[in-house]
Amino acid sequence: MKIKVKVNGAWREDEVEPRLLLVHYLRDVAGLTGTHIGCETSICGACTVLVNGEAVKSCTLFAVQADGAEILTIEGLAPDGQLHPLQQGFWEEHGLQCGFCTPGMILASYQLLKRNPHPSPEEIRQGLEGNLCRCTGYQHIVKAVEWAAARMSS
Amino acid sequence: MIPQSFEYHAPRTVAEASSLLARLGSDGKILAGGHSLVPMMKLRLAAPKHIVDIGRIAELAHIREEDGTIQIGALATHFNIESSPLLKDRCPLLVETAREIGDVQVRNRGTIGGSLAHADPAADWPAAILALGGEILAVSARGERRIPARDFFLDVMTSALEFDEILTAIRVPALPARGGDAYLKLHHPASGFAVVGVAARVLLNAQGAVQEAAVGITGVAPKAYRATGVEAALRGKSPSARHIEAAASHAADGIEVNSDLYASADYRRHLAAIYTRRALERAAERAAAS
Hints:
The structure holds two protein chains of two kinds. Helix content of chain A is 34%, strand content 15%.
């Protein structure tokens, strides 16, 4: 089946099997391996991308369901190599160790700041409840999002 | 974690979807937000030959009020409900329930209709819809029927829907004067599903006594249920802590209680009474303050 999606600002058309999951489409067809596959059971959030502005777990969506949609992956946040404030924040505040959860964390944070530009630490934790990190204990991730929120509103 | 192959259909109207389902018979399966079905397909617990994706039927995504009745289209996502100003004002129990479901990403995609049709015994919506005395609209090529919530949940992951029926909307009464409601839940620490979830609505009469109490409980039994023993015990009484506690002790009367690795049947029965008490207290406080 043919689908047409706008990935990180550029339209593309591909022939896909209906059972192809969006995360596999992004990684294997579009070649965007920044979106990670973690638990594959809709729990860990490593595969989070934005579909029409909403954070989704791309392991729980068929690519055909995204036909016609605009998708943002981690690669689309720094199109010219200039880090997005969230990426900068994770760097500055040591919001990662191994980095496996980071693309999903950053995209979930991206949506959080769009819905709530000045979240409290508690609201950041609630906004990231769908993303698991096994390294940081989350404290530095919360600080990274606070850093980005301050930078983006200044 | 790759599902079995299937044929994909994306109808644009309910009429188109229902004629497709009539033709496909038991080989057809409806996909809404996909947050119950897709995980089942990845585990190959479900392997439908045909997927009918109703996700593009715009008429199914509404939330509106008509003459004191709230109608929510099947495709309203948990986030749509959680963030609806109309529901916050007119049916806050639904907002409170939506907030307790899954996580942000799941609430962005998962739908109320999909969750109800899936009839997971630990899902949140069944408790709320039962407590509100709601009804479920189902459309097929044969016509439309309205199924009272009380008759909708039959068993573990089994609802009253026929294979060719589309759950199109849910109808519940708006919060009346001197009414209050609450949803309280103990989350399973890994899955986020309800170990126990209790939805309560309390209506007080002009003298401040309980005119009517309604309690829906999920997570405890093979299907969500109305705790009729609790409701009868509280009717006509003042909503005092003592009366509420005595009534709540009937939360699992006559119920076959689930037992699993996380919570034994005894522990669940205990939790059901505790959460029922807390939900009723909160609902009664809100009713008194309204």
